[in-house]
Amino acid sequence: MTIAVGQKAPDFTAIDSDNKPFTLSHIKGKNVVLAFYPATFSGVCDKEMCTFRDSMSELNKVNAEVVGISVDPRWSVKEFKTKHNLNFPLVSDWDRKIIKLYGVEWPNFGGMQGYSAATRSIFVLDSTGTVRWSWVTDGQGKEPDYAAIKTALAALK
Q1: Which of 9, 22, 30, 143 is most buried, by the most CB atoms less than 10 A from its CB?
Q2: Identified catalytic residue from 45, 91, 104, 122
């Protein structure tokens, strides 16, 4: 079941693009945009993560940090971050624990039996780690409504 608005966001630790542990609860006093994306180096995912990159100055004004999460291995996540000059953390959920924890696992992704990926989804957390807005796609080719994310973050001031 997908984590609902009003619930405390489950904490997690995963390996980031620099092969270091990243723990969600270590982000203190900031609003957080958890951006789950299906696959590095895929058209919509590239566009989505670059849109977040290009919006960081706006997001910083509302005390927000973006964290990108995919099931790709850390070396792929690192190359993806480097290629697109992403200015926020990316973590590898290679063992699929986080997507299961948040209820955003996309089974048999791309028609590959037994292979799961993250469903493209966004969770906006306030500075206490409570989910205040969320969006989960019903089709992997859709991007989130970036204006709605910014509005949700602005409401947390």
Answers
A1: 9
A2: 45
